[in-house]
Amino acid sequence: MFNVMKKIVLLFLGLFVVSFSSCDTNDDDFYNTEYVRVNGLVTIETQASYAVGDKITVNCVVDRLVNELGQSTPLDIRKTTNNAPSLTFSYVLEKQNGSEWVPVSVPANQMEVSSGQLQNLGFYLATAPYDTVQDAYVFRAGLPLLSSGTYRLSYGYNSEETDVVELRSNSASDAITLLIYTTSNALNNSGFYTFTVN
Amino acid sequence: MRKLAILLLLFSFGFSWAQEQTSPLVNKKNEFRVDVLQALAYGKISVSYERFFEGSFSVGVNGNFSNSARIEDDYNNGFRNNIPRYEINPYVRYALSKSKARYYFAEIFASANGGDFKEIVRENSGGNGFYTIKETQYNDFALGGSLGYKMYFKDAFALEVLVGFGSNLTNKEMSPDVISRVGINLGYRF
Prior knowledge:
- The structure holds 2 protein chains of 2 kinds.
- Chain A is mainly beta.
- Chain A has helices at residues 2-21, 77-80, and strands at 33-37, 42-45, 55-63, 65-66, 75-76, 86-97, 100-103, 112-115, 117-120, 124-131, 136-144, 149-154, 165-169, 177-182, 192-197.
- In chain A, strands 1, 2, 3, 6, 7, 8, 9, 10, 11, 12, 13, 14 and 15 form a 13-stranded mixed β-sheet that branches.
- In chain A, 29% of the residues are buried.
């Protein structure tokens, strides 16, 4: 009897393992998130040269209707996200110190934010709220360059991607969250905009 | 002394065996159960019927109907893409112990199950596209196995603990991969 029980228990364990090893991912993902690709939504306002006291400015304008890659009709972001109030993305400003790159931390009172919000969380979290007049999500902010040296700006802090910027809609929990992969100008192949402040 | 001990032991086994053969449970062929674990933990109504045969086999059917607020919230907030609404689970059981009053058992079960499913689709309206959540219903069929332990009180009232899993087979894109049969059941045999 003991042997029969042992075999049945082993059979059951086998069934258990097979059941779980064949699991796909449709029980453990975020099913309210849609991923789309729209190029050219974020811009670094580059200058030919920089001096101490200048600002490095990042600009983001996302119209309600955008050209989604691979689709023949414009994508309505407002309708998709059930009127999400804002989009967010992040970036990092670093300064070269010998062979190391050190994050540049600018206090909030020295940031020059003309549209949206910018938070210093070790990286910079940019929020582009929806502007009813422009019918677009808009962000623009400059960070002062307080000392001379070599700097670089990148968008990959919260992402493994180096050549894309991830814009995320702040949708209600039961609405669709839109994750827009976009591009920024001026980045090199490693995903950095590197510049020198004299 | 040693012979006496062996004799007593054999006698006690024989007495126990005779007790099991004459247990009132032998003549009670039907049982209804309710799963208290599923009801309390998941807001799920789970009822079962079991028909006992001579020997170690029995057959039965279990019905589950779910309306859990927690699962509904997870579904609405995007943590899952389906809500199981019903399961009809016929099963065959084999008792692994000789005792009729308390025994381990193994079962194989089938499951006809279904519920709600949602996915994000792209639609067009007025020349513009937008993504929206589309909800449909799914139905699937699963096979699985379980192990459990059952004991009776006053030769009629049953307490049963069951752990089992099955795999959906025909509509995995929409249905849950795994059907679980985990429960603590209270029942009445007659």
